[in-house]
From TrEMBL:
The keyword Ribosomal protein does not apply. This is GMP synthase [glutamine-hydrolyzing]. GO terms for cellular component: cytosol. It comes from Anaeromyxobacter diazotrophicus. Homodimer. The keyword Lyase does not apply. InterPro entries: Class_I_gatase-like, GATASE, GMP_synth_C, GMP_synth_GATase, GMP_synthase, GMPS_ATP_PPase_dom, Rossmann-like_a/b/a_fold. It holds the Pfam family GMP_synt_C. The gene is guaA.
Length: 518
């Protein structure tokens, strides 16, 4: 079965919404990939798309050096949909005219649709849309006709039906264009001839076959954290190669309450995954002793993880098991971030990175989730029988509580944040908010303050609560938790966790703050 026979190529010109185009198409059961607009023609041909989408972008096609796609896209004989900058590029490249508009359009607008185009089939004659542009198309290339207009622009949507080229000035991929998904469905199904064969079930089958073909012999190791990504990757690989998989869970001493027991329970006893827990608490805490700098903490943890995995590979070798493969839960956003059209970005914090592992240990990578977004991984997890609690688990960073204990990481301070975190988890769940929030957790600050409890003076630690709404962790807003919930959190933590006498709520969004405090 080739679930990749219906593929759409998205060329990225730097729009903030490019990923949304991919999500919408995938929701429609159409496999697609985002590539930088600079991708060479040979690669485009090899990808063999059923259609191409040109994304929006911040540049103006009128500016010298603004991004272009290889002209081969227009010669593939497949449909093209230009969105915003993509439309302007179509017009500019094929002989039309683009100019800065007198009236820039930002925000909601409506378009009047000329009936008859496959792009608008089944849609009403007037549509609410979302605009965000300063340039506009003033003259169409030969062969093109307008198919929708706004009060201020006659070319809100255009087509060259013979060549199957389409362009829209608005953004069908954003939720503020309520029927945008129908338009994208029309493009994918009616214009490109896709039928929506991409599903998580089909994906799982194909992935399992591919893993079998890749891991023909030898063992594969997988660092299993109990998080969604590594769990789903491990389950897929286990399906493919059974007990040639060795999962390694590291108890690094900075886990949350009961985390080790839960992971062993779910993956060992429930899924019969061959799981080894390495008790490395002393090793990690020993190395972290006295360290307060966040980057240094992260680097130590990354290094110790690698050390533990190396020792495990060595131990397997002594038992005659040659580990030749490393399973990683790399997701599609991780992949696109490294190939994006946009330039390299500054290092904000070093995410503990198991990525340092393979080269050093000469293991081939098995990354069965490389094509998926987080919500797709969650659906795949359900498909593979992972319990709902595991699938909906909020992300938990590899460096664990070490980066949620600001200042020195000691057993005593870890215990404070652990106990506060249990209360946060309980109350957030009880309020029915766990799945709505990207993350909610407690942070122990290196600050003591004066309080009065039972007529006694206290001078104890401060705990901050972080609750964040986000779709991908890249940006986020602090959650407007109900006051009653905040009150309960504060009173429970202060009453139940001896050593904390003050609770504060973090009201910073990302950016400019980050989600974790270190
Ligand atoms: N305690 C641990 N033991 C073994 N491997 C770990 C541990 N913590 C993290 N890892 C490895 O680091 C990788 C990255 O961690 P990350 O938190 O990004 O992913 P995850 O834990 O699988 O999913 P989630 O993002 O939902 O927490 C994990 O996929 C896992 O391979
Ligand atoms: O596996 C991980 N290793 C790390 O080193 C790491 N640091 C942050 N995070 C998680 O990533 C998301 C974004 O976090 P920040 O806004 O703090 O950068 C949030 O979801 C964080 O919990 C990590 N995950
Ligand atoms: N959102 C976009 O693609 C904008 C395209 C172009 N930069 C303009 O302002 O018109
Ligand atoms: Mg994790």
């Amino acid at each position: 079965m080739d679930i990749h026979s219906e593929k759409i190529l998205i060329l990225d010109f730097g729009s903030q919404y490019t990923q949304l185009i991919a999500r919408r198409l995938r929701e429609l059961g159409v496999y697609c990939e985002i590539h930088p607009c600079t991708v060479p023609a040979a690669q485009i041909r090899a990808f063999a798309p059923r259609g191409v989408v040109l994304s929006g972008g911040p540049a103006s096609v009128l500016a010298a050096g603004s991004p272009r796609a290889d002209r081969a896209v227009f010669e593939l004989g497949v449909p093209v949909l230009g969105i915003c900058y993509g439309l302007q590029l179509l017009a500019h490249e094929l002989g039309g005219k683009v100019h800065p508009a007198d009236h820039r359009e930002f925000g909601p607008a409506f378009i009047d649709v000329k009936q008859g185009s496959p792009l608008f089939q089944g849609l009403p004659p007037r549509l609410d849309v979302w605009m965000s542009h300063g340039d506009r198309v003033e003259a169409l290339p030969a062969g093109f006709e307008p198919i929708a207009s706004t009060g201020s622009s006659p070319f809100a949507a255009v087509e060259d039906r013979a060549r199957r080229f389409y362009g829209v000035q608005f953004h069908p991929e954003v939720v503020h264009t309520p029927q945008g998904k129908d338009l994208l469905r029309n493009f994918a199904y009616r214009v490109c001839g896709c039928s929506g064969t991409w599903s998580m079930r089909a994906y799982a089958e194909v992935a399992v076959e591919q893993i079998r073909a890749q891991v023909k012999d030898g063992h594969a190791i997988c660092a299993l954290s109990g998080g969604v990504d590594s769990a789903v990757a491990a389950l897929l690989v286990h399906r493919a190669i059974g007990d040639r998989l060795r999962c390694i869970f590291v108890d690094n001493g900075v886990l949350r309450a009961n985390e080790r027991q839960q992971v062993e329970e779910v993956f060992g006893r429930m899924f019969h995954l061959p799981l080894v827990t390495v008790d490395a608490r002393a090793r990690f805490l020993g190395q972290l002793a006295g360290v307060t700098d966040p980057e240094q903490k992260r680097k130590i943890i990354g290094r110790e993880f690698i050390g533990v995995f190396e020792e495990e590979v060595e131990r397997l070798a002594q038992h005659g098991e040659r580990a030749a493969f490393l399973v990683q839960g790399t997701l599609y956003p991780d992949v696109i971030e490294s190939v994006s059209f946009k330039g390299p970005s500054a290092t904000i914090k070093s995410h503990h990175n198991v990525g340092g592992l393979p080269e050093k240990m000469k293991l081939a990578l098995v990354e069965p989730l490389r094509e998926l977004f987080k919500d797709e991984v969650r659906r795949l997890g359900l498909e593979l029988g992972l319990p709902k609690e595991s699938v909906q688990r909020q992300p938990f960073p590899g460096p664990g509580l070490a980066i949620r204990v600001l200042g020195e990481v000691t057993e005593a301070r870890l215990e404070l944040v652990r106990r506060a975190d249990v209360i946060v988890q309980e109350e957030i769940r009880a309020a029915g908010l766990y799945e709505k929030l990207w993350q909610a957790f407690a942070v122990l600050l290196p600050v003591r303050s004066v309080g009065v409890m039972g007529d006694e003076r206290t001078y104890e630690s401060t705990c901050a609560i972080r609750a964040i709404e986000s779709t991908d962790g890249m940006t986020g807003d602090w959650a407007r938790l109900p006051y009653e919930l905040l009150a309960r959190l504060s009173s429970r933590i202060i009453n139940e966790v001896r050593g904390i006498n003050r609770v504060v709520y973090d009201i910073s969004s990302k950016p400019p703050a980050t989600i974790e405090w270190e």
